[in-house]
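Supplementary Note 3. Input sequence used for the single-chain structure prediction.
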Amino acid sequence: MLKDFTIANMLDMSQTIAGELFEGKTYPWEVLPEIGDFIVKLGKTLDPDEYDCVEENVWIAKTAKVAPTAFINGPAIIGKNTEVRHCAFIRGNALVGEGCVVGNSTELKNVVLFNNVQVPHYNYVGDAVLGYKSHMGAGSICSNVKSDKKLVVVKDGDEKIETGLKKFGAMLADHVEVGCGSVLNPGTVIGRNTNIYPLSPVRGCVPANSIYKNKDEIVTKQ
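The predicted structure, written as discrete structure tokens, is reproduced below.
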């Protein structure tokens, strides 16, 4: 068991309206097949004084700012005080928390973004969970399918977990900073309060409270 990378050790469940989605699960990637159905179920319970149902299975908080050039396909929920900027492309199955930024030319698909997440510039985030106050630098992406199209295995040293998933982006814990131009390969899991250097190709599990310089140089924050 990859105990450092469980939901309990990665994510502050008080910082999402998706808490029920994670109940009874051990690892954050276990929610990926259920995100779309959960959004439809949750959306129907949202307070109409706080959220507008702008089209079928698309709920947008009245306090959110959505650029007229953004495209939002359902199922989707856009949380309070979130900003969806010019030409953002939300393909569906996207639960975006409160106070988030979804930036210009950023694409989201099958994701849960906890509150105050920023994906502000040219990001691709698919089949992923991004924890509270995590931030992806410009041009950083979640690669979600292996080149050989095999099922994704999460690896931490000699420990391995078969996920049974063909599509698996990245799991970011709370307060993760991903440097500009980085590629998070399928099966990447990053612990709390960790920084990823710009232009990094990342795979496997990166421990909490670390600075990832390259695969051979991961140092503990002082």
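Residues 35-43 form the longest helix (9 residues). The CA atoms of residues 15 and 92 lie 21 Å apart.
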